[in-house]
Amino acid sequence: MSQRSSITARPAPAHSAAVVPPSLAASIRLSAGHPPAAGPASQDDRALDVLEPVAATPVYAHPALLLVLFCGALLLAGAVVYLGFRLTGGRVPPAPAPPDEQKDAAPKQARAEEITAKRMEGEEVEAAGPRLPAPAHTEIDGLAPGLNRTLGRLEEALERQRRFSSDASHELRTPLTAMRTQIEDALQAPQETDAATLARALLPSLDRLQRIATDLLALSRLESDALPVRRQRVDLGKLAEGELRTLPITKRTVPLLGPDVVVMGDPDSLGSLICNLIGNAQRHAASTVTVTVWREPRGPGGPPGGTAVLEVADDGPGIPREQREKVFQRFTRLDSARSRDAGGAGLGLAIARQVAQNHGGRLTIEDSAEGARFVLQLPLAPALTP
Ligand SMILES: Nc1ncnc2c1ncn2[C@@H]1O[C@H](COP(=O)(O)OP(=O)(O)O)[C@@H](O)[C@H]1O
Ligand SMILES: [Mg+2]
């Protein structure tokens, strides 16, 4: 037995055979200077001086080849990124939804289309309006609240449109029916009717039709903002004084018109606003109407230059608080059928409020000891520099 032997090669135990990879096992060689003994080796002769595991370098692991491969991979990655940007226009496409979300998206889209189609056709649907369920835990579900808000606005707009069409048709039908009856009566007994009598009978209904058409046109122009407000200096006290001179006054009317209450605006539309307020008050007052104009210094949240205020108050039945916003809607009339005949189509206050808003102001109904109190507030015009 050699004394130099330090490692004895023995058949590997069964459990360790798999531990040494064949490539490594094949490359275990005897160290230099200790060649294996020639001739048949005995059990002891297989003892080795030193065993050095030397890993063989495969050809593909050559450093130069690796460098070339690495550079090639870099170039390829760059080309892929460039092509991707060219194809997507530089935008990062949204991550595709997981399969179960994609499964959810199709029925939701179909539902959204169904809801929109129903609304557009004016079909009756549930009172609160159908909506998409909005659990909001995925990207697609995150869109549902926005879509629901749009559906809500669309629903309100269509409802307003429907109500407007039906109210307008109703208002137009009343004078038209009256005129038709008068003409049919005249045709039934032509010898008892002369043209002048028939024309006089028809005129009030024609006037009414003309008023409605004019008001509707004014309202649509004011709402569409198609015509910019004509701006000039308007003395509110003088304007109210002029309207009081021309309007039919049936009740005691007290003017309290302060001087130099000047606003920037359109005298025609402001005049028609004042005219409507005074006309309404004359119709509803028990005995007295008060028209007051004054300036208010700058208040908290008010216009920087102060506010011009015009107030029309009467001692009539007034307007209940819960109806005070409603009367500003088109075609709203709270009056009984009898006093209705004296009034218009219920468009006056809708127009008046729109005029106030287009002048940067507001028209409201405020509390009062008795009757109704309409208050118009407009920004005061800047003082003229001498
Ligand atoms: N001073 C008032 N007192 C009581 N009710 C009023 C007064 N002014 C307006 N109203 C109510 O508001 C409704 C709407 O007024 P308006 O829009 O001017 O329409 P119209 O004058 O054509 O009736 C009136 O029909 C009436 O019911
Ligand atoms: Mg009116």
Automatic annotation (TrEMBL):
Signal peptide: none
Gene3D superfamilies in alphabetical order: 1.10.287.130, Histidine kinase-like ATPase, C-terminal domain
PROSITE patterns linked: HIS_KIN (PS50109)
Protein origin, superkingdom: Bacteria
EC number: 2.7.13.3
Residue span(s) of domain Histidine kinase: 167-382
CDD domains: HATPase, HisKA
Subcellular location: Cell membrane
Keyword Transferase attached: yes
Renumbered residue ranges of the record's region Disordered: 91-145
Reactions mediated catalytically: ATP + protein L-histidine = ADP + protein N-phospho-L-histidine
UniProt KW Metal-binding keyword: no
GO molecular function: phosphorelay sensor kinase activity
Sequence ranges of Basic and acidic residues compositional bias: 100-122
Name used for this protein in its record: histidine kinase
Species name: Microbispora rosea
Classification of source organism: Bacteria, Bacillati, Actinomycetota, Actinomycetes, Streptosporangiales
